[in-house]
Write a structure and sequence with these properties.
single chain, about 260 residues, Peroxisomal Thiolase, Chain A, domain 1, 9 helices, about 35% helix, Thiolase-like, Beta-ketoacyl synthase chain length factor, acyltransferase activity, Ketoacyl_synth_N
Length: about 260
């Protein structure tokens, strides 16, 4: 079988009623019911106090998942792929409001938080990383396309890669362009090779649609339509349960990203 093969060495998660990967394993594996709750964004412990105050909510969301996924690993040694469809929409909305208000200025902090690689920049500051970093968009396909990019880098370059996908609601009137109901983030550390880790992961792109898209469980029915990053839930549920899974994410162009997950 063709495609990019790597191993999952760490997982991070933050979403409604899912307060971290380790805490959410019982829910994801089906051993405990999912209880709806707001996503609580913790202050990023890896950032110095000044940057911690400057970091926006979307950056805190991304760093929470990325930090959990890389726990116990040398975070500074990881290449990174950060993927978000909306970026920091709240900051962008505030800048647009300021530009239309007479006598209002855009602060430098607002500007640097508004760029699409802001989360990657804060990660580099907090971990002192000098490794290559990619920041992607992708609209509703941000999860599978970002994951494919990360897996391809890991397999081609033979280096570990941190993949972090995250999205949060846009403020009005921007929310009409791309609605999101709640904040959600997930992260994986992908490692080259065929031994060790939590599971093996093979990804590939195909030009055809999925032959049979996966049936969503109760958690997927509740969350997947509310945030494009929550499309990761079938993979996370299989990881938590320690079971193999064949996954397929349809793309807007009519193609698909497919994955085969095999527990170690």
């Amino acid at each position: 079988m063709s495609g990019a093969f790597c191993h999952i060495a760490g997982v991070g998660l933050l979403g409604p009623g899912l307060p971290g990967w380790a805490a959410s394993i019982p829910v994801l594996s089906g051993a405990a019911p999912w209880v709806p709750a707001e996503t609580v964004l913790p202050p990023p412990p890896l950032l110095p106090p000044t940057e911690r105050r400057r970091a926006g909510a979307v950056t805190r969301l991304a760093l929470a998942a990325a930090t959990e996924a890389s726990a116990g690993l040398d975070a500074a040694a990881l290449d990174t792929v950060f993927a978000s469809s909306n970026g920091d929409g709240a900051t962008l909305g505030a800048i647009l409001e300021a530009l239309t208000a007479e006598g209002s200025d855009v602060s430098p902090t607002q500007f640097h938080n508004s760029v699409h690689n802001a989360a990657a920049g804060y990660w580099g500051i907090g971990t002192h990383s000098m490794r290559p970093s990619v920041s992607l968009g992708g609209h509703d396909d941000v999860l599978p396309l970002g994951l494919l990019q990360a897996a391809a880098q890991c397999a081609a370059w033979g280096r570990p890669v941190l993949f972090c996908a995250y999205d949060a609601p846009l403020p009005p009137p921007l929310d009409a362009c791309h609605p999101a109901a709640f904040p959600f983030a997930m992260a994986l550390v992908l490692r080259p090779g065929r031994e060790g880790g939590l599971a093996g992961l093979r990804l590939w792109h195909q030009a055809e649609d999925c032959a049979a898209p996966a049936t969503r469980g109760a958690l997927g029915e509740a969350l997947e339509d509310g945030n494009p990053v929550a499309r990761a839930l079938p993979m996370l549920e299989a990881l938590a349960a320690g079971r193999p899974a064949d996954l397929c994410w349809p793309l807007l162009d009519g193609g698909a990203v497919c994955a085969a997950l095999s527990p170690c």
